[in-house]
Amino acid sequence: MNSDLEYQKTKAYVAPFAVFMGFTLLWQFGGPFLEWDHPAAAWWRRAPEQWLYPLQAVVCFILFLWWRKSVDWDWKGKPAAWGILFGVLGILCWLAPTMAADRLPGGPDAWFGHPEWPWYRYLLGIDARPEGFDPSAVFAPGSWSWLTALALRFFRAVIVVAVVEELFWRGYLMRFLVNPDHPWKVPFGTHSWKAYWITTLCFMAVHQPVDYCGAFIYGSLAYLLAVWQKNLCAVIVMHAVANALLGWAALEWGKCGLW
């Protein structure tokens, strides 16, 4: 493979994720400057995440479409079916701590202490997660604005995040860690312990501390699926299914902090 083709492939696998993370950092560090929590403020000032996240999704999706021909797609039914199964299993592991804590006699505080001392609770994923992305904070539930916000949120989680993250984590970074000089000579799903640990821990680190436990288990399952099936689309399907179920759980249980 010549250097121009390698450069194009690297852009296709890395650039959408880099832009995605750029938007995330913009909200994380610039949110206080974008937000104006005042009764007289318009919705886009009171809750800038309601337009920033959709903008992030649209921009990254356009980048993905622009470079899609440089991606080595390999859609097959059997790996995709395994992706669905691994997605269900992965998200059940992710949700298990908060599901179990809600059902403990006396609640999680009686077993794990007050949430003002959260470090061990957060590492285990034990938290009520009531605060997070909630369109009903600015739009009337059932309105077109509310439905549009929800649709864009699912589009971001199920389509954009699944594709953008898997192109980078399993599609590029795993290969790069096996052969930094020529990552595109490494077949997809090539195993090395270095690739497993660094990819999985980095995937974990970009999530909230309360999700570290679930993200580590999920990342390990995604790595296993990639190595076993050696199919990029399998891990994309896994991520899409997991995020769809996570979004459903956030809405069904009123745990907006899950997504």
UniProtKB/TrEMBL annotation:
Q: Where is the signal peptide?
A: none
Segments crossing the lipid bilayer = 12-30, 50-67, 79-97, 144-164, 232-251
CAAX prenyl protease 2/Lysostaphin resistance protein A-like domain boundaries = 150-245
Q: Does this entry carry the keyword Transmembrane helix?
A: yes
Origin, by domain of life? Bacteria
Give the UniProt keywords, A-Z: Membrane, Transmembrane, Transmembrane helix
- Stored InterPro entries: Rce1/LyrA-like_dom
Q: What is this protein called?
A: CAAX prenyl protease 2/Lysostaphin resistance protein A-like domain-containing protein
Native organism: Akkermansia biwaensis
